Amino acid sequence: MEKYNILLYYCYSHIEDPEAFREEHHRFCLEHRILGRIIVAEEGLNGTVSGLEEDCKAYMAHLKADPRFASIDFKVEENDKHAFQKLHVRVKPEIVHSSLRHIKPTERTGQHLSPEEFKKLKDAEDVVVLDVRSNYEHMMGKFKNAVTLDIENFRDFPEKIKEMEQELKGKKILTYCTGGIKCEKASAYLLEQGFENVYQLHGGIIKYGIEAGGEDFEGKCYVFDNRVAVDVNKVNPKIISTCHVCGTISGRMVNCANPVCNLHVPICENCGWELEGACSAECKEHPEKRPYDGTGYYQKEMNGYNPFKGLVRK
Ligand SMILES: [Zn+2]
Ligand SMILES: [Zn+2]
Fold it and tell me: Which of 137, 186, 243, 301 has the greatest number of C-beta atoms within 10 Å?
């Protein structure tokens, strides 16, 4: 069987002409059969891509050969196929959408902790472990004892932090996200707000899973590719999500079979068959309902589509 890799990476580094870089980079990806999503901005690069192992190696070598991106820390995962159907290389104002455009992590950001350092520090007494991701991500999985934010989008992060000032004051704040990119700005923002002891998990949950066994991460980690969610904890895994229909513990993530709804929620095996893959009796009766094969996964709908759009926190 052919071996594929999934790469997750980002790099804050100045790109003088993002449009020109985009053209050239897009061509390189096509030539190397790389699929996925890459965002190019003046402030840097952010990508999640998949390809054959040797193509991914060439891709990483190509970026690292460029002095602007020599410091990229790739998170490399193995897979038996592509994790995307298409390739998108886009120029955007920021490499991660935030309301913190003025912040430059290259100038100042929270102290980076390696996965092992994070593991050692996270349970200390004066520490707050802060999940900077959105509802649809942390409801699927998070670090044990982490503080989560009720936000639908990273743009709402600053506003939430203002509400939490008392809770965070005087504490060591350890931020984490999926691959580390959001923490670069989130931790810089915390410093800007006057918090002094701010740390960030370098490489995020994904690297922590690879290098520290994922210890104490409960549930699954939401990812931005066709896998939707991955297991990261090989030490003490725990399922934290409950069936959207009956409330029993279930880590089985399903897209509602009604394509108009397409809600992405945990639904247990029994309820899945009972509702034929729909999230509710109403969706089960929808005229466009897709046939249910027991997986709750509909390939075409996933591409460039946020399965959590419109998801309401229960
Ligand atoms: Zn159920
Ligand atoms: Zn539905």
Answer: 186
Query: What would the DSSP string read from start to end of 12-72?
Result: E---S-HHHHHHHHHHHHHHTT-EEEEEEETTEEEEEEEEEHHHHHHHHHHHHTSGGGTT-
Looking at residue 82, its amino acid is: H
**Model confidence at 94: pLDDT above 90:** yes
C-alpha–C-alpha distance, residues 304 and 129, integer Å: 31
Tell me, in angstroms, the distance from the centre of ligand 1 to residue 180's CA: 34
Catalytic residue among 11, 29, 177, 283: 177
Interior/surface letters 86-100, b for 16+ CB within 10 angstroms, e for the rest:
ebebebeebbbebbb
Buried b or exposed e, range 297-312, using 16+ CB within 10 angstroms: bbeeebeeeebbeebe
- Please state the length of the chain: 314
> Nearest ligand to the C-alpha of residue 264?
2
Q: Are 272 and 292 in contact (CB under 8 A)?
A: yes
| The model's pTM | 0.84
CB 274 within 8 A of CB 252: no
Question: Which residue in this structure is represented by tokens 């790739």?
Answer: 74
Give 42-79 pLDDT, tens digit per residue.
Answer: 999 999 999 999 999 999 999 999 999 999 999 999 99
